Amino acid sequence: MPPQARFLDRRSPPHIATLTLLAGVGAIGMNVFLPSLPSIARHFESDYAVAGLAVSVYLAATAVLQLVYGPLSDRFGRRPALLAGFALMLVGSLVCLHAPSIEWFLAGRVIQGSAIVGLVVSRAAIRDLYGQNDAASMIGYVTMGMALAPMLAPAVGGFLEEAYGWQASFWLMAVAAMVAFGLCFFDAGETNQHKSRSIGDQFRGYPELFRSRRFWGYCAVMAFASGGFFAFLGGAPYVSEVHLKLAPSVYGLYFGITAIGYMLGNFLTGRYAKTAGVETMLQLGTAAVIAGPAIALAFHYAGVNHPAAYFGPLIFLGLGNGMTLPSASAAILSVRPKLAGSAAGLGGSLQIGGGAALSVLAGVILGPDTGPTPLLWLMLATALAARLAMRYTLHVERELQPDDNT
Asked: pLDDT tier at 340 (50, 70, 90 boundaries)?
C-alpha cells in the first residue's frame, strides 16, 4: 500500500489491513456455518440437500451482486459501495436468525451475499493504485491475510455449533458485518479518481470486455481453478458426516488444511509475482490444483481411508488456488484498467456463478453408497479444465501485439 495510506484516516487510501479484513468477511459468510448444515436441516425439518442450498444460493447471490457492485464502485466510488454492501449483509444475517422457515432462511442467505462487496472493491482499489504485476503481488498479500477467515471459520463454527447451536454462527456473521461497516466508515478513503459519468456508461463497457479473448481466458482460469474448492464446499460436509463420521468441530479443523495451503499460495504470490510474473504463477498454480484431488484419489484406490488421506492432499488444492487466483485477478483487471471495478465484478461473477453450480452438483452426485470418490473426480476434472484454460490464455497473450487489446 502506498506510504500515504494511514490507518483510520478516511482522507487517505484504505490501509492494507482494512482491505484484508473486508475481503475476509465474505469468506466468513460463505463457510463459518458449514459444520451446522445438518443441524439447520433438522431445525427447519428439511432435507439435507435443501439446507445445503444455503451454500449455493449464497454463491449465486455473490455472482449476481458482483455485477452490481463493480459498476457501482466505478460510478459512485469504492467507499459508498462498501458501506451499502456491509449494511445489507447485516440485514441478511438478522433475517437468517429469525427465519420462520427454510425459505426465509435461504432468502436471508441471498441478502448476506452482499458481503462479496469487500472482495470486489478491494481488488479494484488495489488496481487503482498499482500496475499488473504489482497488483498481483498486493492481491496475493491481501488474500493471504484473508485466508485466515476460511481457515479458522469452519473450526470456530463447529465449536459454536456444539456449544450454542447453529444460530451462533449467524450472530458471528452479524457482528462481522458491523465491524466491516465501521472499518469502511473510518478508514476506507476513496481510491477511484476517475468515476464514470453514469451507470449506463459502466454497463456499456461490458461489450468491450466481452470482446477480449484475454478477459474470457483469465476468467475461465479463475472459474475452473476455484471450481474444485466450491465443489468441496458443497460436498465435504456430507462426506464428513455420512462417510467419515466426523463431529462438526473435527470437520472444521480438517477443513483448515485446505485454507492453510491457500494462505501459503497467497504468500508465494505476494513474495514472487512481482519478479516472476503472472505467467509463472499461473503455470505453477494450476499444476498444484491438479495435484490435490489426484493424490487424494490415489490414496483412496490404494485402500487408505483415513480422513487425513482425504483432506490432507487438498492442501495442494488450496496452494494452487492461492497462486492462481490473485494472478488471474490482476490480469483480468489489467485488460481495461479504466473498467477495473466492472472487470472485478464480472470476472468474480463468472467465477462464483460456476462455483455455485458445482456446489449444487457436488450435493447431487453424493449419496450414502457413493463414498467420497465422485466429489474427488469432479474436483480433478475442474482442475484439468483450469490447466487447459491457462495454456490457451497464455497462447493468446504471446500471439497478441503489444498494442492489441483483444
From this structure: low
Cell of 383: 482442475
Helix (H, G, I), strand (E, B) or coil at 371: coil
In whole angstroms, give the CA distance from residue 368 to residue 81. 44
**pLDDT computed for residue 3 by the predictor:** 43
Q: How far is CA 151 from CA 140, 258, 266, in A?
A: 16, 7, 13
Report pLDDT digits (tens) over 290-339: 999 999 999 989 988 888 888 899 999 999 998 998 888 878 877 776 66
Residue 200 lies in a domain: no
Write the CATH number for 235: 1.20.1250.20
Residue 319: what residue type?
A: L
Instruction: Print the domain residue range for 138.
Output: 16-189+207-398
Cell of 211: 470482446
Angle between helices 16-31 and 167-187 (to 10 degrees): 160
DSSP category for residue 215: H
In a 10 Å sphere around its CB, with 0-12 CB exposed, 13-18 middle and 19+ buried, how is residue 17 labelled? middle
pLDDT at 367: 75
The residues, any chain, with a CB within 8 Å of residue 49's CB and separated by 6 or more, are 363, 364
Q: Where are the alpha helices (DSSP H) in 53-116?
A: 53-76, 78-97, 102-112
Q: Looking up cell 474436483, which residue turns up?
A: 379
How far apart CA 371 and CA 314 sit, in angstroms, is: 17
pLDDT value for 144: 66
Exposure string for 158-170, b = 16+ CB within 10 A, e = fewer: bbbbbeeebbbbb
User: Does residue 197 lie in a domain region?
Assistant: no
Residues 388-400: pLDDT tens digits? 999 998 888 777 6
- Assess contact for 86 and 376: CB atoms under 8 A: no
CA distance 324 to 269: 8
In the chain, the largest separation of any two C-alpha atoms, in whole Å, equals: 62
pTM for the model stands at: 0.69
Q: Report the C-alpha gap between 142 and 122 in whole angstroms.
A: 9
